[in-house]
Amino acid sequence: MKRMLLLPLLFVATSFYNHLNAQITETATDAVRNMGVGWNLGNTLDASTPAGNYSQSSYWGAQGLESETYWGQPLATPELFAMMKNAGYGAIRVPVTWYNHMDANGNVKVEWMKRVRTVVDHVLKAGLYCIINVHHDTGADNDKHQSWLKADLYSQNKDRYELLWKQIAQEFKDYDGHLLFESYNEMLDTKSSWCFASYNTPTRYDATLARNSYDGINGYAQSFVNVVRATGGNNATRNLVVNTYAAANGSGTWNTHLQDPLKEMKLPEDNEKGHLIFEIHTYPQIATKNAQGKVENRKMEDIRKEIDDNIAHLKNHLVAKGAPVIIGEWGTSNVDAGDGKTDYDVRPDHMKLFIEYFVKQTKAAGMAAFYWMGITDGFYRSMPAFSQPDLAECMIKAYHGSDFKGEYPTPQAASAISCFEGEKVLGWGNGITIAGALFKSIGASGQLELTYKHTKNVDDIQFFYGDWSTKPPFMADGKKYDGDFIPHSHYSSPLGSEHTTIFTFDDAVYEHLCKKGLIIHGDGITIYKAQLTNPASAIASPTVTPHAVDAYYTLSGQRIAQPSHGIFIRGGKKVVVR
Fold it and tell me: Please, is 570 exposed, middle or buried when counting C-beta atoms within 10 Å of its C-beta (0-12, 13-18, 19+)?
């Protein structure tokens, strides 16, 4: 028996060891073809909180490992990627944001680099291609946050950007060709212009700003290639991905400058020929509003023509320059999203027609496409299961054929969501944030389980609502507290003691937590694990369930009188209400 168990483990270890040593010989064109269907691990390692102005020291390195859960996603696990592999996916794009985990000089925190490496290892061990990038270090500005990487500020950012990529490249230089690097995400100019450079100026086009921005994009791309190649190892021939300005795709005819990001993008100089890839993003609308403001599905012939025309532009302006193309993000733009609805909610059949055509046409064009999030989201990832299994199956069969037999596990009731694992010393401005979406996902009977050690004679755990507005009351191991929890007093334990405490909240507080989230703060406390659990979510078998056959319940056990669309429990069994 021991020998039988040892062989699979040895195979896995040897297989992954090969990922760390095998020389890269696969060309970019072959890698893109072999990736198959891709998916984005969105809102995870790319999550962050607004940091203000990048000229201030407080902007840099202000967050810890808990940032992975800031936007409502659980910690990424090996089981999630195994599920994606079994479904038929071939590649995972792992967006990573860095500014919140590095100092003003560009030095990345050791623990963050280690966490990124752990997630990459999970992806590769599952037998998938993996792309990591520099993600929300780019993007649009608002009143609360500026992105530090700007297309027209290449000279200002060059040294810090190159140092960042030097560190990433050195960390992964021994990994084989199943790991790819992506230079930057959707980089904009200082006016936060989408579509094309300088669009967000009063005249909708500024030739000087546009020129500086396109030159800057090409400068960043060249720096990226130069720095990665110089680190040696497998990076000498690693397949590298560079994005157009804003990752713009050139689609549309409403402005003569729409295709400028494609036309102005250069293929970086590279001594290793055949190892560079271009990337764009696309989110077409499959519905539109008519003159009366009513939302209507677009005709499929119009959608197909838009896809075909876009692929033709990509071939003419990018592939013709000597590199294949990947669609790093794609999906649909919801014209009725303001109502809290998605295309999947409102027009699932129409969406599947779009997905089927898009996947088939990009495959025929030799382009790998990475769907943006969806299909498995929030607590579904912690099970793991697909939140939209029919959508996942649609895109997989569009690529592999209708006879392909993938596995698409459906949701079980969530019993636990991991929010933090590691070692976090609590201090002022240095807490753990749990997004409201995670409280909402785990259900109304949810409770917070903390494993920690108190390290000072004065120790204190504090809870704040996610906006720091106030300290909510709570129960610790069944005893009520108003805002502060003193472990050594609660347990009468000496300095250095480790505890696991169950915290619960009344219904009114829990409702606020679902909206605002929770900040775990304190002093003299080292947190090792934080998870949300729901003991009521374990659904009994039909033979012992006390629920009435005709009654509907949510996955968290709440009775619903008239269920809308979604997955519910009826008669002890999961049912889908469409």
Answer: middle
Q: What is the Cα 425 distance to its own chain's centre?
A: 26
Beta-carbon contacts of residue 491 (< 8 Å; ≥ 6 apart): 497, 499
81: Cβ contacts below 8 Å, ≥ 6 apart = 92, 122, 123, 125, 126, 128
Measured between alpha carbons, how far is 188 from 180 in angstroms, rounded to an integer? 23
Token readout for 65 is: 């490992």
CB atoms within 10 A of CB 557: 17
For residues 291 and 83, what is the distance between their CA atoms, to the nearest angstrom?
Answer: 44
Q: Contact 263/255 with Cβ under 8 angstroms?
A: no
Q: Are strands 368-371 and 129-133 parallel, antiparallel or unpaired?
A: unpaired
Q: What is the pLDDT of residues 82-111, one digit of tens each?
A: 999 999 999 999 999 999 999 999 999 999
Cβ atoms of residues 341 and 391 within 8 Å:
no
Which of 307, 179, 157 is CA-nearest to residue 235?
Answer: 179
The phi and psi torsions of 5 (rounded to 5 degrees) equal -75, -30
Helices (H), 259-347: 260-264, 300-317, 343-346
Taking only the tens place, the pLDDT of each residue in 238-291 is: 999 999 999 999 999 999 999 999 999 999 999 999 999 999 999 999 999 888
Cβ within 8 Å of residue 66, ≥6 positions away: 419, 420, 424, 431, 432, 433, 434, 530
Rounded Cα distance between 134 and 149, Å, is 10
Percent of the chain residues past pLDDT 90, beyond the cut: 73
Residues 310, 362 contacting (CB under 8 angstroms): no
Tens-digit pLDDT profile for residues 131-173: 999 999 999 999 999 999 999 999 999 999 999 999 999 999 9
- Do strands 368-371 and 37-40 pair parallel, antiparallel, or not at all (unpaired)? parallel
